[in-house]
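Can anyone check this?
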Amino acid sequence: MSDTSWLRSSAAPAGTTVPPAPGLLSTLGPLLREWLPRQRWFAGKGRPITAFGLVSATELLPADGRLGTPGLLHLLLDVHQDGPQGRGHGQPDTYQLLLGSRALLPPALAHALVGHAVGGPLDGLTIYEALHDPRLTSLLLERLRAPGRTGHLLFGAEPDAAIPAGLAPRLSTAEQSNSSVIYGDSHILKFFRRVAPGPNPDLELSLALARAGSRRIAAPAAWFEAVGLYDEPATLGVLQRYLPGSAGAWELALEAVEKDTDFSGDAHALGRATAEVHLALARALPTSTLRRPQIEVIAGAMADRLDAVASAVPALRPYRSRLRAAFEDLAVLGEQGTELAAQRIHGDLHLGQALLTQEQGWVLIDFEGEPARPLPERRRPAPPVQDVAGMLRSFDYAARHHDPAAPGAPEWAETQRAAFCAGYAEAAGTDPRDEPVVIRAYETDKAVYEVLYEARHRPAWLPIPMAAVRRLAQPLRGATP
């Protein structure tokens, strides 16, 4: 394995791109310009790609493909795009790609085709998405089993990690903002698609929890990162314990709604598990206190998001002033001297981020936070009630998933919400419902985000967050700030 000096000239300083070796981007650019927007994980859909910048290129297997074996090329690529309505886009997004190269692509990999290279160092080769190729993903696992450095890629592992050799790989078909490869029945690799300098919270928090002895997570075994390109390493992927036979909370909740069976016991246990994770994170990582200036900034940002969404989604406008009251009440708490404890949290908690296992009970997954938010923001301490609010909104979604207008949906959701909060209080010693102003503000902010998402991507689901908007727009009883 070698750093691909023939593909690039030198390492990039922080925030810059590398002038490519002649022909590489001119060869790959036209192929990627067509292929990238079709990928589920590509965040820039609907905006033209205007330019590419090569951050790094590392050859993990000789990329000529002419020796009868596939080549394997790792790329970090800056993708420049126009902004909305054709306005210029300030900062590019950096994407991680793993590309295979062959003289001829076997029929079994035809669906992984990126394109046929013309000119440059890859001339005449077929380029494809390497994560579909078991031969190449097996090589990636072997590299994770042997910590060390290859070019700008640094592979690391927990000292006591037992990663078997020869595990059969398969690419996960689940819809997600990254890509995942499952190895046998013991490990799963999350391959981050959008990359930024700094530790990804999914690795950072999972490591902290595992080292603290928490059983509420899928323990990380190995990882890899980009070094020497930015001021700090950038997490590229994490290999974690796979949990075969587990059941997703979202699927279990939907089944309970459809069959009209009790879910409150599971919701209660999930509340306990969430509190246990919060307590462990508070012990393992620094905490802080939010006072009036910070609370006012948070409330102001929520109000700004409300105004932006109301401008984009007409259905929200009649409720804007009443929803704004939730954020104004939060600001008043700060003015009155209320302080909020802040710590590292999950950041994107909902029923889809929890698995029920036989050995560990409820396990929380995907600690990277909301992928659309900047990495520094996702790593910032926040009130734990933000996670609670996300889960409460998820119960609403489960209740209305089959029928947004189901008459029993409000009662079912409220039963689960109460059970979750009771379970949380049992473990944490504090009940989120004892802070009605705070939880209302965070739940309202989440519902506003959902309104924009559904209006843009799933208009048929817009009635689900709009039902929450109507509920949250009602005055808060008996909880004057």
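Reply from J.R.: I decoded it. Confidence is low (pLDDT under 50) at residues 1-20.
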